[in-house]
Specification:
By secondary structure, the protein is an alpha/beta fold. The protein has helices at about 15-25, 45-50, 70-80, 90-100, 125-140, 150-160, 185-190, 215-225, 245-255, 270-275, 290-300, 310-315, 325-360, 360-375, and strands spanning about 1-10, 30-40, 55-60, 85-90, 110-115, 145-150, 165-170, 200-205, 230-235, 260, 280, 305, 320. The two termini are about 15 Å apart. This is Glycoside hydrolase.
Length: about 375
């Protein structure tokens, strides 16, 4: 049995963090023993690992900070205690910590990285992250394998100088038993929001961050609302609430207060997703393999996505792909799906779920990770 230490940047509610949970929920526990070490403490995903009986530790790093000597000593202590056979990094900071951890153990063990970000331009990234990406160029060649979640991300990093000799693509995978079509979810969400049973719902589920470009989504919403006043827009995620003055001011300025519903951070994403008529990714940059796209497709909800990372490749011909930062294109794509009618969207939804089954099931993704780990010491 191989003991794997998963070194992740954090365990908040994000796509990469959710994918780590999904991966470990299906890992072969007769063959692999997982232990999670998070650089940043807390997080809703971290709490859920208790249900899987997977130990979770943290070195107590603050978001955006550099580890101090005490935190490095703590990391060394965990490496000595766990005595891993494999160290799997998760996201940029976790990847560098994984490579650093090699110095804390007296035997050679394989290091794997997992990168969940795409890069439009380095200048678009925060200074700290920009520097970490650059440092990664030097450390990546010493890894057994650098795993990217999208082909676009792999090519972008290689263009920056990341090695082509030890990299591969393993996409995100989706639990097709959790994310399913549900007429009951459609009924319940409209009831919760006190909307008519036939209200048309367009959703975007993402934390509030410039990368996610809520401005693009809301400007498109205002454009569509001028033609379809019965469409409602559902937003959920970290900082997506009435306490976010920047967000609420934009909604008021666009005159769509009555059409936009801010649900905050929710734990019932399968329920929310299945309730939508159209799911949307409106991101400007940074997405590699948006988890919310595959989740919506699994629920037979057609998607409109901006052409960022591999979003367009995931959707294929089951939805619409538009340029980023183009509200008119986004609104037009929504309108085209609305005009398809219930039956037309239903056919797209069925094709979308079948596409996930064929290409992105969680079982297939877990198998690809396990194959890499099995071969790591051979």
């Amino acid at each position: 049995m191989k003991k794997i230490m998963f070194l992740t940047t954090g365990l908040s509610t994000g796509g990469a963090e959710k994918m780590l949970y999904s991966l470990l929920s299906q890992i072969n526990r007769a063959e692999f023993t997982p232990v999670v070490v998070s650089l940043i403490p807390g997080g809703t995903i971290g709490d859920r690992f208790q249900d899987l009986s997977i130990p979770v530790h943290t070195i107590g790093l603050k978001a955006g900070a550099i580890p101090n000597p005490i935190q490095l000593i703590k990391l060394r202590k965990y490496v000595h205690q766990i005595q891993p056979d494999i160290i799997q990094g998760w996201m940029y900071h976790g990847n560098l910590a994984a490579s650093l951890s090699r110095n804390f153990i007296d035997r050679k063990i394989p290091i794997f990285w997992s990168i969940h970000h795409s890069i439009k331009t380095l200048s678009a990234e925060r200074l700290v992250l920009r520097n970490i990406i650059k440092i990664g160029i030097k450390f990546a060649p010493s890894c057994q394998q650098v795993i990217f979640v999208s082909q676009a991300s792999k090519l972008q990093h290689e263009a920056l100088g990341y090695s082509q000799n030890n990299s591969c693509v393993i996409p995100n995978g989706f639990n097709l038993e959790t994310f399913v079509p549900s007429l009951e979810s459609q009924r319940q969400l409209r009831q919760e929001l006190r909307l008519p049973s036939n209200a048309f719902l367009v959703g975007k589920f993402a934390r509030y961050h410039p990368m996610k470009d809520h401005q693009n989504f809301l400007k498109a919403a205002a454009l569509l609302n001028s033609k379809y006043s019965d469409v409602h827009f559902i937003l959920a995620g970290t900082d997506i609430s009435t306490n976010n003055s920047e967000l609420t001011q934009l909604i008021q300025h666009l005159g769509i207060n009555n059409q936009v519903h801010l649900l905050g951070e929710r734990q019932d994403m399968a329920h929310l997703t299945a309730a939508l008529d159209i799911a949307t990714v409106a991101s400007a940059y940074g997405e590699a393999f948006p988890l919310v796209v595959g989740e919506a497709m699994s629920c037979q909800v057609p998607c409109v996505v901006t052409d960022v990372g591999d979003a367009g490749e995931i959707v294929g011909n089951t939805g619409k792909v538009v340029p980023p930062q183009n509200p008119q294109a986004l609104a037009t794509a929504w309108q085209e799906l609305i005009e398809l009618g219930t039956e037309g969207r239903g056919r797209l939804g069925i094709a979308a779920r079948n596409r996930i089954i064929a290409n992105f099931s969680l079982e297939k993704v877990v198998d690809q990770y396990e194959q890499l780990w099995r071969l790591s010491n051979k």
